[in-house]
Amino acid sequence: MGDLMDKMTSSGPLLSFSTREALRQVGIHLKTARLRRGESEELAAERTGVSRQTWRRLEEGSAKVSLGLFFEAMTVYGFGEQLFDLAAPDLDADGMALDAARRPQRGRSRP
Length: 111
Known about the structure:
The chain is mainly α. The chain has helices at 2-9, 17-36, 41-48, 52-60, 67-76, 80-83, 93-102. The protein contains seven helices and no strands.
């Protein structure tokens, strides 16, 4: 209960476990990409136009870094193409199924 109360009283949105875990994993992946290139936090921060502290928060999975920084970091480290599939309508199986269920079926009269 204390963990939930901490999230409710802190500034920012209430995030699900899945969201927090995804942020943490993306941070780890970006850190791995940076280290594989032999780059320091300082260089990564410079390349993306933020402070080293902000870059470190991104790698730690903080939800308080900007979406713009996330997109820029993904692009800088070669993951830019993946951004175009985020929330792509043609990959939304649940949404497409709901949409299809609401459409009237052809050849049937309405009551």
